[in-house]
Amino acid sequence: MTDHRGDPEATPGVRDGPLYVPVRPGRGCLVTCFFRTPSGRRTAVAFTTSVQLLATLGRDHHWIRLSATALRSLTSPLGCAVTVDPRSSAHPLRPPRAARPPRREAQQRR
Fold first, then answer.
1. Does residue 110 register a pLDDT over 80?
2. Would the pTM of this model clear 0.70, i.e. be above it?
3. How many other β-carbons are positioned within 10 Å of the β-carbon of residue 45?
4. Residue 47 and residue 14 in contact, taking contact as beta carbons nearer than 8 Å
């Protein structure tokens, strides 16, 4: 890890290299995606590898590379924290139930 003492707003434990930041296409630009922490606070997320980003958000998700300092510069005016390498907290979706054959309401009784 790099010594972050020169950066007063450095996030402890965040490496100095590029981060992979999820974005969405806007009108002629890319927009940083914001998420919610389990407590409900808004946060920007970043990943240390593109593999982690795509595994967490899906392989079709757009991303850009930014330094931690650049990402903090974008998010701090909005009062948002930066979360690096978040673990997905959403429960996996259940596969749909197998379709049941239609019920026979009018069965002939013998």
1. no
2. no
3. 23
4. no
Burial status of residue 47 (CB atoms within 10 A of its CB: 0-12, 13-18, 19 or more)? buried
- Beta carbons of 53 and 63 less than 8 angstroms apart: yes
Q: How many residues does the chain have?
A: 110
Q: For residue 5, what pLDDT is reported?
A: 42
Determine the straight-line distance between the first and last CA of the chain, rounded to whole angstroms: 80
Domain segments of the chain: what residues?
18-84
For 37-94, the pLDDT digits (tens) are: 888 999 999 999 999 999 999 999 999 999 999 999 999 999 999 999 987 655 445 5
R_g of the chain, CA atoms, integer Å: 22
Position 17 scores a pLDDT of 76
